[in-house]
Amino acid sequence: MEIKVIRHLLDESTKRAGEIRALLDNSDIFMVNMIGSPGSGKTSLLEKTLVALRGRLGCAVIEGDVATDRDAVRLQKYEIPICLINTRGACHLEPMSIRKAIDEIDLAAIDVIFVENVGNLVCPAEFDIGEHAKIAVASVPEGHDKPEKYPLLFNECKAVVLNKIDLQPFTDFDAAAFYESVKKLNAEAPVFETSCRNGEGLQEWIEWLVDARKTAARW
Prior knowledge:
With 219 residues, this protein is α/β, with parallel strands linked by helices.
């Protein structure tokens, strides 16, 4: 009986995710699920992305946080719709809460919804929340072995952002090993080397996002 209950819950989650994706497709909205460790620079990357897309695409953010509103407050200055989901200890966001957040957004002026998931490389990768693309956000200080240690995320993502590349001279990060691991898991996923401090690689990431929104229906 217990196994049947678990299966029922997972089936319901998958169904809700499909409904969300259909809603977004009907509204011509591209949703990105940003997944990375605490401290990988997800919020900093999101800040730079919002600035770069201003005037090009209408953006909204669904901010996932275990306990605080700090990242959501940090993004308020960009004057875009922001919905905060406090998971109260849960390690990932689920479709039910994502749908409630979407219902709070006026979709008429939105082209892209960014979901900043809870800082975690395991659980968020396992759940479909109705997104069109999972983005794996890694960073140089974390080390080059993250793809091998957390293969599901890198296998399912549509792109990899290697953040804080400006710190590479001060670490023993092995770029060749990182790229080799990513290629083994997901040869199709592009890797964008970025620095939110000096702006390196950000334009390539932005142009990929703009193009991905146009081609998502063919994925």
